[in-house]
Amino acid sequence: MIGIVLFNVVMLLLCAMIGSRIVPTSLVSAVLDWLHNTIGITSPPLEKVRMVALIWMGSTIVIVDGALFMLVFFTTRLM
Asked: Using CB atoms within 10 A as the burial measure, which of 1, 10, 26, 58 is most buried?
């Protein structure tokens, strides 16, 4: 339980830091370039890097929390 809360807090703090421009654009761009090259998709232009990073992070939060919710929901209903 502590891990789930810690994950959400860290992700939201990181989103706030990216959104408020505390984290430099060059660092965010480098991480997104690596991620997009790993997946095999085109990297975003420099002016849209922050928005794309926030979209990626929001999607990750929703997917992880949704998967954990479904795991808990189905295991409590079936047992």
From this structure: 58
- Structure tokens, 18: 């990216």
**pTM confidence score:** 0.86
The pLDDT tens digits for 19-36 are 999 999 999 999 999 999
Q: Which residue has the tokens 């095999």?
A: 40
Work out the pLDDT band at 77, boundaries 50, 70, 90: confident
Give the CA angle between residues 75, 76, 78 to the nearest 5°: 65
- CA–CA dist 50, 69 (Å, integer): 28
Q: Tokens 């997104």: give the residue.
A: 32
Length of the chain: 79
